[in-house]
Amino acid sequence: MLPAIILAAGEGKRIFPYDLTRQKAALPVGGQPLVRITVSQLRQLGCEAVAVVVGHRKERVRHALLGLEGIVFVEQKAPGGTAPAALLGWEALGRPDSALVLCGDVLLPAEALRALAELQESSRPAATALAAPLGGRNPQDWLRADVGAGALRGVEGHSRGGSHRLCGAYALGPAAWPYVEANPGIMESVPVGGMPPLEAELAQSFQMMIDAGLEVAAPVHEGLFCDLDKPWHILEANRLWARYRCAQLTENVIPASCQVSDGAEIRGHVALGENCVIGHRVVIEGNLIAGAGTSITNGAIVGGDCVIGAGSKVRNYCQVGGATVTGKDCIIAHGAEFGGVLFDGVYLYHYCELAGVLGASVDIGAATVCGNLRFDDADTVHRVRGRREVPEGYANLAWIGDHSRTGVNAILMPGVKIGAYSCVGPGVIQYEDVPHKALVLAKQELVHKPWGPEKYGW
């Protein structure tokens, strides 16, 4: 198996409200940091030499890979793009002839990584660039790949059209490295009027190879794939991963230490960690994966293809939507309704109703709700670094950063994003995004009048 370079240094400015406290490559997917999933898959495929290029929030990446031996970390001191980051990893590995180069914020299955490496080793093109169908997404949001007959015929940054995009997963052979070293430091292959930033994008090196007559293979991957670039991609990646993992369950996995009530209605297979409890009157509507010490009790309803983190408590007639993923030690109770992604330690209680992505240790006040259906039945237009965007999906859900909270009876209107370390107070109707480290309180006007028995005729 080829050695691998993982690029995990980017600032991730488009992923607000998770940018302040997180590194994109270490965002949780299925309860694990994404970069840990990637490295674990590489190890299963026999890849022993792995270099991880870190930068922004580097401690998050190091922590995510704790306990995995033999990883070389190298720091990119200042943002400069994917090409110089790849060169740093290449140098750290001792300049191997060939290597995988994987963007750390991309989710792919192990079989796609294996196929990428095997194609490079067997056919020996100058490089191999994995491509995926755009599938109706806006081509201006991605690096376009012009593919045909298994080859990359050209690339274009944020194109006005096209059918495929680059996946952020590459294999580079001996002939490719001089073109990475000679990258001009800006994406020159752009549409007329395009305004690329001054960053050395690896895709430009592929265009240079193509212009020089070198072969760049471009297999098309049509399976599980997600590039975590914006907040809604966190939800997309987790739902894809939850369904992918739950689809692999063909029988129950229930350790002897678990308790599963005969009064529970389970309509699929379950894979439970040690000391799990599934109690009376519980309904599980499909396959379920639950971590050690999880309890699902007292009338809870859990949708199919859910992944519930270790130590979490789902109870008291709450409802969890299908393909929901929670981190460890979450509480969903007392009639709460939720669908989406919870990071670790989220607290949902007393008739709250939300859908979206909630960061670590978020505390949701009683009866907090997210209105996710607009009166005009339209999708909310978001602003991502000043640019107006309508997400490919999930536009009207709630996005709450780490260590934030709401008061009782708060209402979040469709698509509202709340920054990390922020509070939305009781009774607030929140129409706009809330920045990091902010407090929003409602100001009410009161009318005081005399009152008493005489008002009732006494």
Topology:
Blueprint: E1 4-8, E2 28-29, E3 32-33, H1 34-44, E4 50-54, H2 58-64, E5 71-75, H3 82-92, E6 99-103, E7 106-107, H4 110-123, E8 127-133, E9 143-148, E10 151-157, E11 164-172, H5 177-181, H6 202-211, E12 216-217, E13 226-227, H7 231-246, E14 259-260, E15 265-266, E16 270-272, E17 277-278, E18 283-284, E19 288-290, E20 295-296, E21 301-302, E22 306-308, E23 313-314, E24 319-320, E25 325-326, E26 331-332, E27 337-342, E28 347-348, E29 353-358, E30 363-364, E31 369-370, E32 382-384, E33 387-389, E34 398-400, E35 405-406, E36 411-412, E37 417-418, E38 423-424, E39 429-430, E40 439-440
Write structural notes for this entry.
The chain is α/β, with parallel strands linked by helices. It has 2 domains: 4-229, Spore Coat Polysaccharide Biosynthesis Protein SpsA, Chain A, CATH 3.90.550.10; 252-440, UDP N-Acetylglucosamine Acyltransferase, domain 1 (3 Solenoid). Strands 15, 18, 21, 24, 25, 27, 29, 34 and 37 form a 9-stranded parallel beta sheet that branches. A 7-stranded mixed beta sheet has the order 5-4-1-6-11-8-12, sandwiched between helices. Strands 14-17-20-23-26-28-30 form a 7-stranded parallel beta sheet, with no helix packed on it.
